[in-house]
Amino acid sequence: MRQRLNLARFADVQELLRSAFQAAGRSIQTPVADAAGRVTAAPVYSPLTIPATDIAARDGFAVKSRETLGASGRNPVRLQNPKRVNTGNAISPGYDAVVMIEDVTGDEGGWSTVKAARPGEHIHPAGVEVRQGDLILPAGHWIRPCDIGVLLSCGVTGVEVLEVRVGLIPTGSEVVPAGEIPGPGGVIESNTAVAAAMLGEAGATCTRYGIVADDPGLLREAIVRGIRENDLLLVSAGSSAGTRDFTADVIGDLGEVLVHGIAMKPGKPAIVGKINGKPVIGIPGYPIAAITVIRELALPLLAAWGLAPRPPQRLSARLTETVTADPGYDEFVLLTVSWSGDHYTAAPLPRSSRTQMALVRANAFLHIPAGRGGVIPEGTVVEVEVTGPRV
Q: What percent of the chain has pLDDT over 70?
């Protein structure tokens, strides 16, 4: 057996990651249609003026406003050479207003308006949306679906976005890929798929490598490749203190183990290392612990590098039962939050629930920082972070 883990304070590890590792500062050009969830690396300016000319804002007739003076329901004014327009049509030179079709009487033999038009009425002037050279998106902007529509409408087809490459290595001789039936004691690999979804949502480019058996030589080869091809490497499983947990030793041989063991629950066996100046995070194989480490360590690092993890949604809720926590650890307690009359309630999930289904049943969690543990009585109002729909 290996030596016991030397636990580091959770807050210190977060600060270590931010201070010890700098962003690669790399960007790539990506098609606008594929850019949702990415972060702009440079300002984006419009190559076009939108609209390029004055256009009709209503269906009706383009007119010269001065010729409609005095028009009313009792005094229709005959239109002089009106131009029929639909919403979005260009306004011909010399015309400065649109009379809505609802305010017009007559037929092709002669049209009259029962309402006087003001100059510019029902017209979108040229450049009202954006002018050529105007800023559309600043640098560091998380691109939303609505931004894609604006970019394309302004004639932008490609956008420069930050690129952070994250490698994900699953390990374990008992692990099989999705689609295979595991034998006795086996398990289907899922941690790297979850990590890719979480980190990809923040704008990272993720590469999932093949499963590496419990062999130090094979793991070494995989980590060397992963470090060479990525800015951040996550190794799933092999981070604890068992006889087949080689991750810390391999990281130490190739570089430096900065932290092995963090005072956090779940996630205590996590590793933080450095190889060729790049961060390596060893995440526990236990899925709930793996997700906690990804959320609390990897995502904040990506945020420090300029990417955009989903901002946390927090609310106040009343505990339905007493929660106990070890004051020496940062603890993350899974909860089911629901609305009850005039307030939210938070029901802690049993700590004995060691299955991934606990993550499905939970829609929030409570972070209890180290030093604030002990007993939190039933009925206490706490601030929780929402992870799913509220019931």
A: 95
